[in-house]
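Troubleshooting entry. The earlier prediction with adenosine-5'-triphosphate gave an output that would not parse, so I re-checked the input for stray whitespace and re-submitted. Clean input:
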Amino acid sequence: MALIAIAADKGAPGVTTAATALGAVWPRTVLLAECDPSGGDLAYRLPNLNGGVLNPAKGLLSLGAVARKGLNPGQIAEHTQKLVGGLDVLAGLSHGEQAAGLTWLWGPLGRAFAAMPGADVIADCGRLGTCPQMNDLLAEAAMVVLLVRPSLDQVAHLRERLSLIKHGRIGVVVVADPRHYRASIDEVRRIVGTSAEEVAVLGGLAYDPKGAELLSGGWGGRLDRSLLIRTARELAGRLVTRIAEPAPRPVRRGVGGRT
Ligand SMILES: Nc1ncnc2c1ncn2[C@@H]1O[C@H](COP(=O)(O)OP(=O)(O)OP(=O)(O)O)[C@@H](O)[C@H]1O
Ligand SMILES: [Mg+2]
């Protein structure tokens, strides 16, 4: 089905938290894939379905070991685990050094994700710019969602980043304080502008420390009522609608080496 890549430029605006929240409320069958080249965080944050620790050896690393000769979408399920709550996850790398030997993987992985039968894939791609080959995965995404907090430095870097992503549809999501939610989103929309048809400010996710903390610990009823999860649910609905729409015209942004 569809690959939705979640990423950021500088800072740590909450990519992993957003990807996890979206995975938890996604209205269709979904796989949460930890593709951050700097390493995954989920094993440290959430238990598996049995209350144990996610096995870091079963995931992106084990998939990378068998995928050199080719990767088909059917292979991915053998490397996934279940998080508490039942969400399927492809556990990420343990540290950034492992990514150095896997630069060839991102393109084939993106193609396999986009062709997964019966499931969408939400990929946590971490911070962009550290691993140029990540562009090969982004190129396969039905939507690249860029997270940003409404600070001048983060928005400025985001604007630069928008000119460097060459492929496909981009959605900007603002991690915003609920007290200034609309104003923050509107401000980012104003700064980012709507110059490119394929870039849309999709809306916000609540800045909600308590909700984010729950996503780093255990899942429970309270999480479901958190502002973070409520806004994630709205965003997930909007994303599913967006990716069903016809693709925009070919992208005319063209920087970053290839045009
Ligand atoms: N929506 C949110 N509201 C409040 N706090 C948040 C939110 N999202 C993330 N946080 C907090 O911000 C910190 C960073 O979050 P997270 O790990 O999701 O960011 P990231 O962008 O994935 O960072 P990195 O680039 O290091 O992987 C964590 O302490 C997390 O609890
Ligand atoms: Mg992260």
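This one parsed fine. The beta strands are 3-8, 30-34, 81-82, 88-90, 120-127, 143-148, 170-176, 199-206.
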